[in-house]
Structure prediction request, 367 residues.
Amino acid sequence: MDSDERYCLTRSDSAAFLRRLIKEEREAHDLLMIATEASLMGWGTWDLENGETEWDERARQIMGLEDDAQKATSLEAWLELIHPEDRPRVERLLQERISEGREYRFEYRIVPPDGEVRHILATGLFRAAPDGTPRRGTGLVQDLTERKRAREEHERLRLLEAASRAEAAERSRIGRELHDRVSHLLGVVHQSLELHEAFKHADPRKAAQKMDLARSTTVEAMRWTRELSEMLRVPSSEGEMRPRLTRMLSQNVPERIATHLIVEGEDLTVPPVVREQLFLVLREAVRNVVSHSGAEEVRVSVVVGRGEIVGAVEDDGGGFEPVATDVPTWRGGLRYMTERVELHGGSCSVESVAGKGTRVVASFPLS
Prediction:
């Protein structure tokens, strides 16, 4: 047998070879059908030469193209289904993957004919012709809508639980303040009144001093009671930050301290529970400035950026050395602010220089 005969297939050999290829292709197709059915995925192909796409039944259901007449559709018609906000990104990614002949994996939203927005995960690859020109794409689509909704609901419940824990911690702290501050002040009032009775005949001048002390301490106790009662109120998380912060500053900062407020970005796009926690942190920081800093000026800022919201309170007061955070009143306030922020995956930092003031910064992620 010469070399030509050695590598030549007979007609019967060719037929057997083709039958085997067809059988293997059918088996591969069946396996693909089983896999996509089990994973609730659909599959489709893109013919880049004529610009047509073709989808299986599952993919058509996912994309709302359940009419058999829509089994084959153009690439442009498929792109029209994609949410307008996602379409430029998907087109850019597709062009990159097609030109490079690479695998792809990305998420996007579609707006099918029924109008219900769905979240889709697409994965696949593009094949090139022998000359390197991209010719055909094959891919899978999966509906992530229910998974997204479940994740969002889980996150909503987590945030509610975190807010509930933070509220419980705040009420516990207020209870300690009532015991430590108000009870002490009332004790001073009671002792001063008893001393007034003891001195009112023997030493009228000293008796008058004790009565004055009782009066001033009563006023102080009433002030603390009002402030702590105000803190127990659950403020509404609705509304923009600027008017709420403006009102908070007018209620908590005396006229001797100048105030400045800056709010940048669309804070109403921030989840209400995050907006509320930031407001409470800023309020606590402002109260610390009024109570402990001796400042003449306080600046409050809120900036909604890409992926986070950041709030800051800065004063020109006495500041403190790092060791000063051991002072119980400061430590309690910092712990309160830090716990609120960390419960929502954020961070809280304090920078202070003795004689030059203090800056508190709290940031919350928005993702």
